[in-house]
Amino acid sequence: MKTPAMKRWMTFGWTAALCLTACLQSDMSFADEYYEVRTIVLGDKGDAAAVDQYLEKALIPALERQNIGPVGVFAPKANSETKEGSVFVIIPFTELGQMESSRAALAEDSEYQKAAADYLGRDAKSPPYARISSELLTAMECWPKTVVPDGTLENDERVYELRLYESANERLGDLKVEMFNAGEVPIFLDSGIQPIFIGQALVGPRMPSLTYLTVYKNEAAREKAWDAFRAHPDWKVLSKNPRYGGTVSRIDKFVLSAKPYSQM
User: Where are the beta strands (DSSP E) in 43-96?
Assistant: First the structure.
């Protein structure tokens, strides 16, 4: 049987725990943005049209009603290093808790449920995709918010590049982030490489790592920009700084085109 004193201590304990959790969340949620990078692997039996219908007509409009966006949706181009049959979805959040609250809001959104009915109503014998893989990123100091330059969506020839840099351990991963923050992005911009977002992985299958998305007017502009970057005198100095030696153990590069309904 719990005495009044025990009840008071239990109440105090729960209150203290809740306050501590709130303080920790406040301290941790310091970034301007967070990003979910969602990779939808269609597989041999996937239904690309159903996935497009769901994203365009159900998910993105529902996220817009939650004031979440811009949402980017991309497919690999023929010269990409990734296998064909994947769809990349980029969802920005203004705080960590928004990712969870967004899922709850979708469950209560009747418009979303109606628009997504065919997609969500499929059984195990007719899935629209093989599997979804996601990672959660935090924006970095060098590029704290999503930027979609004016006129980007009107250019049908635009090309994107998604890069993921892995590091051998957490110390080296943090040093690669420091390297970006120390001057890599100005070299990007000077070379014609336009970032849309840059983030360090908080949760994901390829940690420690950072991921960024860039956009170019066309394929020729992408190749020219990277040639300019490699030849840039500031990059030659930064890349030879011994502090940043060996910070990247693997690079994955995906050359992408935007879906017609993409907001990036």
Answer: 72-76, 86-93
DSSP-assigned beta bridge partners for residue 35: 92, 137
179, 192, 187: which is closest to 244 by C-alpha? 179
Report all structural domains of the chain as residue ranges with CATH numbers, in order of start.
Answer: 34-258 (3.30.70.100)
Question: How far apart are alpha carbons 64 and 26 in whole angstroms?
Answer: 25
The pTM assigned to this predicted structure is: 0.86
- From the list 128, 120, 132, the residue with the least C-alpha distance to 40 is 132
- DSSP letter, residue 143: B
Report pLDDT digits (tens) over 142-165: 999 999 999 999 999 999 999 999
Please identify every stretch of the chain with a pLDDT value under 70, giving residue numbers as ranges: 1-30, 79-84
Using CA atoms, how far residue 1 sits from 4, 5, 6, 7, 15, in Å, is 10, 11, 9, 10, 21
